[in-house]
Amino acid sequence: MSKLAWRRTWFQVHKWIGLTLAILIVPLSLSGAALVWHDGLDRMVNPSRYAVTGTSVLTVDAYVAAARGALQRGDRVAQLTMPDHGGPVIVAAQPAKAAAVRRGPPPRTMVYLDPPTARVLQVAPGNAGFVRFLHGLHGSLQVPGIGRQIVGWIGVAMMVSCFTGLWLWWPTVGRWAKGLRWRRHRNTDTNLHYLMGFWIALPLFVLSLTGAWISFPAFFAALSGGGGGARGPDRGAMMRAPALADPAQPLGIVVERAATVRKDTIRSIAWPTTRTPDWTVTYAGGAIVKVADDGGIAVAAPSRQPGGIARLMRRIHDGEGMGWLWQTVIFIGGILPAALAVTGIVMWWRARGWRAQVAAKQARGVN
């Protein structure tokens, strides 16, 4: 196949990926850009839950007692999360009238508390709110069940689009540096498309790859030699399992028993459930101690945070702990695909009109 034939082929692939996925790429990329600044955005949208009066903390029992006063009768406390970076204490509870077992995140009621006083700052559904909506939009396009897989395949298509876009950007005549010129075309939108596409191609390829990796973890784990054939426990079912209404071990005793194994700052405590009858105490740095609810025996447990390449892929995609420079790149990498989709549609529409005019002139010439 000649170079010109390859160019025509990649042009068609690039064009139809853009036109077919434009309506999905725009919300997916913009929501990803916004979530780079997740904490700041949440503080902006929900200022009341961050109206803390200090950083000193009380006992965990004081927070649970205060939260129970704001919950409905019969609600079961499922988790307590201690503040990080000056935020509130968060108590998550399962509503007494929880929905039947379903796909997706379990229903939770979140109680936000002031660390120094245990005063209730806000009570809100765990799966509601603007920031939670953005998470659902970016992770699954708000499509239950298969949304995560749809997002993964969009990531695969975007990797192909990045490759074909660079091929089409490369000047057909002269040195490659000619492609960096602004006036490659008489139309501003076309020049924008060329330049934005070039500068964002590599970061967008990385973000698309990591997004696909997150959507298809088993496939990529097997591909990278990290296993993935054996299925682990159903984490969704474990998360939806009801917390025990009356655990045998008091919360204060659980904290004391866990301290015999690990002495560090507690980040969260998860209550025992009908599927996992152990308390789970997580410390700063990710260390975990399990405390058996029946006998109070405390043992160290493996960290649940994914390690190795899987953890790295998620950090690259989210920007967590990657510094402001990469976070800025991710933010731009979310804004520019939306602009590329718009300019690409404009270019296609103009070319469509131009071809119609040429066809009309040829028809008149024939007649």
TrEMBL record:
Keywords noted in UniProt: Membrane, Transmembrane, Transmembrane helix
Alphabetical list of Pfam families matching this protein: PepSY_TM
Keyword Cell inner membrane: no
Record field: transmembrane: 150-170, 191-214, 324-349
InterPro entries: PepSY-ass_TM
Top-level taxon of origin: Bacteria
Stored PANTHER family: BLL7967 PROTEIN (PTHR34219:SF3), IRON-REGULATED INNER MEMBRANE PROTEIN-RELATED (PTHR34219)
This protein's name: PepSY domain-containing protein
